[in-house]
Amino acid sequence: MDEEIFWRVHAGLPRQAPGSAETTALLVRLSGVTPRRILDVGCGTGASAIPLARLTGAHVTGVDLHQPFLDALAGTGVEPVRASMDDLPFPDGAFDLVWAEGSAYLVGFDRALALWRRLLAPGGAIVLTEAEWLTDTPAAGARAFWDAGYPGMRTTAGNVAAAMAAGWRVAATYVLPDSDWAQYYEPLAAALAALGPEAAPAREEIDVRAAHGSDYGYTGYVLVPR
Fold first, then answer.
1. For residue 129, what are the contacts with CB-CB under 8 A and spacing of at least 6?
2. What positions does the domain Methyltransferase type occupy (predicted)?
3. What mean pLDDT do residues 69-83 have?
4. How many other C-beta atoms lie within 10 A of the C-beta of residue 194?
5. Who's near 187: CB < 8 A, 6+ residues apart?
6. H or E segment at 79?
7. Taking the alpha carbons of 154, 84, 46, 36 in that order, is the dihedral positive or negative?
8. What is the tens place of the pLDDT at every residue in 147-167?
9. In this predicted structure, what is the pLDDT of residue 195?
10. Which residue ranges make up each domain of the chain?
């Protein structure tokens, strides 16, 4: 999709990836952390950052490169910071939780863990959701779509092994339910209805999910440095 169209569509959406307030709350509980400071990397319009602030009472900093997304955080209590997720302007040990729902893939699972590790205070954790294969033999249509968009996508077992090899303890995993995809795709489909052929890639994404959704999903991870 053309970048201008992408931003125009997604700026009006309540979230920029599959998820839900219920999943965010569950992942907070699974983390076992009582945070005072949370960093939401790739925060978008605040679908995770806003409930994180409400659930935990922590100071939440939301980072994104797209200024209109950050502008949407005005009045929410979330501190907006415009920065790249691979060049975060924060000191070591600044956060109890580093959060990234649906955004770590932009730098890659392994690189995200390597880049963000230094930001954790003692006892802290990274919580992220990652697109993954749920089968070793996905349908050709699903494979073609994801190989084009995220060629490094792995299975849960592959990501668990990679995290452990990089010095992380995988404290919890959780496969997001279909209802979390609906919370993302239903508003997206409504927004796409007003667009023409230029939005075909986004429509294809929805169609691939409808046809092959059992082959892949998003998995939530709680990762603790060893």
1. 17, 18, 19, 23, 100, 101, 102, 104, 176, 218, 219, 220, 221
2. 39-127
3. 97
4. 9
5. 13, 14, 15
6. strand 79-82
7. positive
8. 999 999 999 999 999 999 999
9. 83
10. 3-225
What amino acid occupies position 68? P
Measured CA angle at 201 (ends 193, 23), to 5 deg:
80
Q: Could you tell me the pLDDT band of residue 1, with boundaries at 50, 70 and 90?
A: low
Q: Nearest CA to 45 among 102, 107, 106?
A: 102
User: Model confidence over 164-221: pLDDT tens digits?
Assistant: 999 999 999 999 999 999 999 999 999 888 888 888 888 999 999 999 999 999 999 9
Q: What is the pLDDT of residue 88?
A: 99
Instruction: Compute CA distances 196 → 10, 14, 21, 48, whole Å.
Output: 15, 22, 31, 30
DSSP H helices, the chain, are: 3-11, 21-31, 49-56, 67-71, 109-116, 140-149, 156-165, 178-192, 200-212
Whether the Cβ atoms of residue 45 and residue 11 lie closer than 8 Å to each other: yes
Q: How far is CA 57 from CA 11, 41, 199, in A?
A: 26, 18, 39
123, containing H or E segment: strand 120-133
To which CATH superfamily is domain 3-225 assigned? Vaccinia Virus protein VP39 (3.40.50.150)
**Among 127, 59, 64, CA closest to 97:** 127
Contact assessment for residue 50 and residue 78, using Cβ atoms and an 8 Å cutoff: yes
8 A C-beta contact, residue 87 and residue 113: no
Average pLDDT taken over every residue of the chain: 96
Element (H, E) at 169: strand 168-175
